[in-house]
Protein 1
Amino acid sequence: MKILVTGAAGFIGFHICKRLIKNKNYIIGVDNFNDYYDPNLKNSRIENLISEKNKPNEFFKIYKADITNTVEIESIFHKEKPDIVVHLAAQAGVRYSINNPSTYIQSNLVGFGNILENCKKHKIEHLLFASSSSVYGGNNKLPYSEDQGVDHPVSLYAATKRSNELMAHAYSHLYNLRCTGLRFFTVYGPWGRPDMALFKFTELILNNKKIEIYNRGQLYRDFTYIDDVVESIFQIIKNPPNNELINLNSNDPSSSWAPYNLFNIGNSTNIKLIDFIDLLEKQLNKKSKKIYKEMQLGDVLSTYADCTKLKNWINYKPKTNLQKGIKEFVDWYKKYYCN
Ligand SMILES: NC(=O)c1ccc[n+]([C@@H]2O[C@H](COP(=O)([O-])OP(=O)(O)OC[C@H]3O[C@@H](n4cnc5c(N)ncnc54)[C@H](O)[C@@H]3O)[C@@H](O)[C@H]2O)c1
């Protein structure tokens, strides 16, 4: 199968490409290699994909292109003729969206619209796209499940991700485009994102610098290990939405008469930030110096996923607990940065 992966140089994109290549799928990667975080890390991920054991990888090809560029993206679809699209390219991060709204409007709305148009035009069999747990915004009923209404985003980032879900639904209804939205819950692991807590805290603790802890540590997150996320994407590719299976009386806003699905992808655990730091300190064998700060604008207090819908669809069972996941990350970090 030929699969186009946008955001291939990103954290999740890199891992999904690796998994799909292992199963002998042909991967067309697209990424603009922007400098939201160190582009060297993005280049290293791509180098790792391009050559395995010093042999060029015939299953992988990368295009440096921006998803907002209509001409370039159309020509990639036209030339490569992918069967499936896994769309992960986006401006990520809640806090960055407070001061940099235009990047989110461009990449997450204009860029997403461009991907949808090409999926329609080139008759893509199945579009999978990244949404986020942040769509649950101001909801306070935990765990979050897909049948909850999500109409109160508390950041522009969340609003763009919710908009993607709605835009995809319109294409699914109008053009019979099979779409699956993936609501990721704090994904972490080796080759992770430098702007996320695990990476930042590890870097600061190892360099004897202070870590900032928001809302005095009274924040809770559902941390999901990258291999569990990748495995679920792999299974969802093989199980596209089937509108004949939908129960229209279910009153579930994430289901539809159109070939469309939305899933939470989490670990269904609600870890207190302070406990998470404690586990990291044990793994690093080093205590952190903490500065306690107020709650940040746009942040949510808690994320916690109900993954029953995904379990029923692909028998999803996350396998990696936080202790093991942190160890895998720290081992990678030390090997990559400290050797
Ligand atoms: N990592 C998480 O915990 C998490 C949680 C919820 C949602 N998500 C979503 O999952 C997706 C992947 O996240 P990630 O953690 O791998 O982030 P990432 O930033 O590592 O990867 C995104 C990639 O997209 C590329 N990109 C950004 N804008 C682009 C554009 N206009 N054109 C082409 N490429 C562009 C970036 O260069 C980057 O390599 C994103 O859509 C993100 O919003 C991630």
Protein 2
Amino acid sequence: MSTINQLTREIHAKIVYYGPGLSGKTSTLRSIHGSVRPETRGQLVSLATEGDRTLFFDFLPLTVEQVNGLTLRLQLYTVPGQIFYEATRQLVLNGADGVIFVADSQGAATDANQESLASLERNLEALGHDPATFPFAYQWNKRDLPGALPVASLRAALNPHGRPEFPSVASRGEGVMDPLKEVTRQLLAALRTRPPAPQRRPTSPGVITLPLSSEPTAPSPAAASPPKPAFAPRAATPPAPAFADPPAPRPAPPPAAMPARSPLTFTRLFTTGNAQLAEVERAICEGRATTAVRAAAQGISEVLGGLEVLERSDAARAALLGLDGRDYLKLLRLSRLPEGLATEADALFALHVLVGARLRADSI
Ligand SMILES: Nc1nc2c(ncn2[C@@H]2O[C@H](COP(=O)(O)OP(=O)(O)O)[C@@H](O)[C@H]2O)c(=O)[nH]1
Ligand SMILES: [Mg+2]
């Protein structure tokens, strides 16, 4: 889910490259990394790759352009293609604002393309996205190979609704920017035209969350709604309301039921696992900043450890969860400060990171 940080004037959005194994997703990120100006890109991180195969995911942070004085920061992810990594794909897709489907153009890959597209549709629906409006483009890759099918055949098999599509030769860096520009255009258009949705959860301080696309909602039972056409063109369906069936507002407790001086606490956001959070808050109130920072780092570690994914390292899990890498690294640094050196601001920052991580983990 994209966010606008009013303090830093930045829009953050996540774009996921989806497709079968070996279709060219990692090559696409490598080519993008190699073709943009160094100052606009971060490090390309490929996690646990074995030879040519991406076992977990690749990640590339990119600063694309200035929009109305706001800096657009994109996070590009790829998913692992192999069938048995479905859980990792779901996690990577969580919070995505747009998807580029990288198809292998070769005739032999037809089944794999179709299976991967079906998996994408399933996972987007499970996240509550409306395929008709979700920012999306196809990248027909490996156009250079003699076994490549005509684009018309790929379109007939994979793009019945005429969503935007682009040919590419990712290994030579050809055509990789066009689908990225197109999906970025779609998600910015969604940002301009959609009013902010009612907030269902409090967000981190200083961060406004906007529904760039249909916002992920809790998975709904498939039987409850009729199947929707995958990636139907925008014009074919009327714009769906952001929340077709808005949840009833939570009734406020009667004032008499509130303790006279109820302390403000984030633990009310969560029904379980509050010990660490309460410890951070208590330490802040008592002026024990170092304890608060260390307890928050411990809390984050517990959140990451609780994720049901194959990744072992906390850093990989933090990236999957969508934690801001700089925040995460800063918290780790603060937690290693000698006793007495952390400030109240450090402790409040640590609390903010922990609450953000808990909210993200809760939304999975
Ligand atoms: N001929 C050709 N090979 C490609 C192209 N894109 C990727 N490859 C090759 O296909 C293999 C798999 O690519 P990779 O990017 O790792 O696929 P991924 O599994 O989707 O990440 C690698 O050997 C690439 O060099 C392309 O456009 N043309
Ligand atoms: Mg790969």
